[in-house]
Amino acid sequence: MASPRDEAPPRSKKLDRPPVERLYGRRRGHALSPRQRRLIDLTLPRARLAAAAACDPRAAFRAPVREVWLEVGFGSGEHTAALVEADPEVGVIGSEVFENGIVSLLGRYIPEGAEATALPPANLLLWPEDARALLRLLPDRALARLFLMFPDPWPKARHARRRFVHPMLLPEIARVLAPGGEWRIASDDPTYQAWVAETFAQQRLFEIVAVTDARPAGWPATRYEAKALREGRHPRYWSLIRRD
Questions:
Q1: Phi, psi at residue 243, to the nearest 5°?
Q2: In a designed cystine with 179, which of 7, 28, 126, 244 is the match (CB 3.0 to 4.6 A)?
Q3: Lowest mean pLDDT among 16-25, 56-65, 84-93
C-alpha cells in the first residue's frame, strides 16, 4: 500500500482548464525609432524562421548546426544572445512577439544603415509569433533544449490558462523535445512558482532534476532577473529532463 507521502497531491481544478489559443500581451511598447522600424521592416523578414521551414529546423539555419534550442519569450534578448555566442554549432530559435524586444536583439548584430543587407549570426533564427504555434509545426524530437526565462506570470486565477506552463501543453512540448533534452524555467513570481510546482507534480513526461533559488552555473543572466533582485523578489530556477 502506498503511503500518504507517495500519493499525488489533490489536483487543482485550474489545471483541467484548456489553455487559450489567443496570444495575450503587448506587441509593442514605446514608439519605434526610424532605425528600429528598419530592423522590423527590413531585417526581421530575412532573419525569421519561415513556417514552411519549421518541419526541418536544423536545415533552416545558414550554417550547419548539431542541435536546435528554443527560447520562448526572449524579452530584450540578452539570454538568447548569450546562447548564440557561446556555441556557433548550436542553432537557437528565439521566439518573441514584443517588437521592442525584437529590435533590441537585432540591434546587437546589425550595424546602423545596414538593416537591408546585414544579418544576425548564422546560428540564430527568430520566430516573432506565438511560440505555441511553432511547437505544432516542429517535428518530433526537434529540440535539444527549451528555455522559458521569467515569463509573464498572469497572476490572476482567471488568467491561468494564458500561462505557457500548462498541463495540456506539456504533451506537445514533450513531443518536440528529444528524450534527455532539457527544459529550463525561471520565475520570480510566487504565483507562477507555485503553479509550476503544482503542474509538474501531476505529470510523468518530465523529470525535475533541480530546483534552486540561486541561478545555476552556466545559466546566462537576464535583465529581468537583475530587476527582480533589485526589487526584492526571489527567483526560482527549474531544470527538467524529458523522460524516454
A1: -70, 155
A2: 244
A3: 16-25
Tell the burial category of 108 from Cβ atoms under 10 Å away from its Cβ (0-12, 13-18, 19+): middle
Q: How many residues does the chain have?
A: 244
Does pLDDT of 89 surpass 80?
A: yes
Catalytic residue ranges: 152
Any domain includes 196: yes
Number of folded domains that form the chain? 1
Percent of the chain whose pLDDT exceeds 90: 82
Hey, which residues does 208 pair with through a beta bridge?
240
Q: Is 206 in contact with 183 (CB distance < 8 Å)? A: yes
Domain with 190, as residue range(s), is 58-242
* pTM (two decimals): 0.88
Asked, for residue 229, whether it belongs to a domain, the answer is yes
CA separation for the pair 11, 236 (Å, rounded): 22
CATH code of the domain covering residue 146: 3.40.50.150
The tally of CA atoms less than 13 A away on the side-chain side of residue 241 is 7
Residue 136 in any domain: the answer is yes
Asked, for residue 187, whether it belongs to a domain, the answer is yes
Expressed in angstroms, the distance from the first to the final Cα of the chain is: 27
Q: What is the DSSP string of 175-221?
A: HHEEEEEEEEEEE--HHHHHHHHHHHHT-SSEEEEEEESSPPTT---
- Give the residue from 104, 93, 97 showing the smallest Cα distance to 129: 97
Q: Rounded to an integer, what distance in angstroms lies between the CA atom of residue 223 and that of residue 213? A: 17
